[in-house]
Amino acid sequence: MLNIALPKGRLGDQVYELLDGIGYDCRDIYLDNRRLVFENEQTGVRYFLVKPSDVAIYVEHGAADVGIVGKDILLESAADVYELLDLHIGKCRVCVAGKQDFREDTGRRLRVATKFVNIAKGYYAALNREIEIIKLNGSIELAPILGLSDVIVDIVESGATLRENNLRVISEIVPISARYIANKAAYKFKQAEVATMLTKLAAKLPQA
């Protein structure tokens, strides 16, 4: 069995549709139940449904052989895995955003609210900008509105949530999309299975 960690939620739905389209189906995954493990002996795959931010952890520590995860998670966690392929789905951006009338005061530390602590630190370190990180896990957009922070570092897809809350993108840090990753040991000992999936995924992608 090739053990595959998949993210729950909307990205997970796109990922499973992609895998189903290249012959790695597991019909029970479509059922409305609370199961977290699905396997198909005929296709030789076992899927684990996990929180998106945990996919890289399961792969890094060998609980899963391969996984599909957002680039934002890889950057934030610095997981020790092989990043094999950009799948060009789940596209979005990690951005700095703030209130429409935000004007930066370079004479003091910038207060940055985010759940992407490492990405934010790396970005501002490269700018030699002194910051104060305020770690949040949800409703990041509230922070500048309520004066908790000057700006936020967060995922932006369409920008609709920012506009609805009178916020704007100040700068883009990095584009994000889903990546096919592999555990380093599995890449060696299950090389044929990992490589077969990689080849099929690559063939399914739009040609440049």
TrEMBL record:
Domain of life: Bacteria
Subcellular location(s) per record: Cytoplasm
Pfam family, one: HisG
Single GO MF descriptor: ATP binding
Keyword Glycoprotein: no
Catalysis: reaction(s): 1-(5-phospho-beta-D-ribosyl)-ATP + diphosphate = 5-phospho-alpha-D-ribose 1-diphosphate + ATP
Residue stretches making up the ATP phosphoribosyltransferase catalytic domain: 51-202
Any one GO CC term of the record: cytoplasm
Gene Ontology biological-process entries: L-histidine biosynthetic process
CDD domains recorded: PBP2_HisGs
Pathway listed: Amino-acid biosynthesis; L-histidine biosynthesis; L-histidine from 5-phospho-alpha-D-ribose 1-diphosphate: step 1/9
Keywords, ordered alphabetically: Amino-acid biosynthesis, ATP-binding, Cytoplasm, Glycosyltransferase, Histidine biosynthesis, Nucleotide-binding, Transferase
Enzyme Commission code(s) on record: 2.4.2.17
SUPFAM superfamilies membership: Periplasmic binding protein-like II
Its job: Catalyzes the condensation of ATP and 5-phosphoribose 1-diphosphate to form N'-(5'-phosphoribosyl)-ATP (PR-ATP). Has a crucial role in the pathway because the rate of histidine biosynthesis seems to be controlled primarily by regulation of HisG enzymatic activity.
Membership in a protein family: Belongs to the ATP phosphoribosyltransferase family. Short subfamily.
The protein's assembly and partners: Heteromultimer composed of HisG and HisZ subunits.
NCBIfam families: hisG (TIGR00070)
Domain comment (free text): Lacks the C-terminal regulatory region which is replaced by HisZ.
Descriptive protein name: ATP phosphoribosyltransferase
